[in-house]
Amino acid sequence: MIEAVADRLEGAPRQLRRRWSDEFKAQVVMEALEPGASVSAIARRIGIHPSQLFAWRRDARAERRRYRSRHPSCEGVVAPVAGAVIEIAIGEVIVRAGVDVDEAQLQRVIRAVRSA
């Protein structure tokens, strides 16, 4: 039986949790979704446990499903292209926008494409 004694644990170094930006996670997830990509190798390269990257992938897929259920006429975000552009397929139309585009402007473009 092992007992934890409070005064023995007080000197243990406290580790801070790392925070990853949403942009970084999206970039890593897109890399992990490429055909033939090794999740374990990618995780090792960036210094995280593979289970963390699998969780990020699972969360991204769930978000994509939620988006598609809210916007049935839209096939969803296809992929970031060269890290600076996103593509959104709406029916047979593909809308390409820079990642720095104003959200309100992008919404107006999407509404215009849907109504056309």
Quick take:
The chain is an alpha+beta fold and about 120 residues long. It is about 50% helix and about 15% strand.
Note down, in words, how this protein is organized.
- The protein has 116 residues and is an alpha+beta fold.
- The chain is built from five helices and three strands, in the order ααααβββα.
- It has helices at 6-9, 22-33, 39-46, 50-70, 103-115; strands at residues 74-81, 85-90, 93-98.
- The protein has a three-stranded antiparallel sheet.
- Helix 2 (22-33) crosses helix 4.
- The longest helix is centred in the middle third of the chain and has 21 residues, at 50-70.
- It starts with 5 loop residues before the first helix and ends with a helix.
Q: In sequence order, what are the helices and strands, one letter per element?
A: HHHHEEEH
**Over all CA atoms, what is the radius of gyration?**
20 Å
Low-confidence parts lasting 5 or more residues at pLDDT below 50? 77-82
Overall mean pLDDT score?
A: 75
**Helix content range of the residues, please?**
40-55%
Spatial shape = elongated
Structural class: alpha+beta
Treating each run of at least 4 consecutive H or I residues as one helix, how many helices? 5
β-strand number: 3
Largest sheet data: 3 strands, antiparallel
* Terminal-residue CA separation: 71 Å
Strand order within the widest beta sheet: 1-2-3
Measured by DSSP, the beta-strand proportion falls in: 15-25%
Organism: Bradyrhizobium brasilense
InterPro entries: Transposase_8 (IPR002514), Trp_repressor/repl_initiator (IPR010921), WH-like_DNA-bd_sf (IPR036388)
Family: Belongs to the transposase 8 family.
Pfam family, one: HTH_Tnp_1
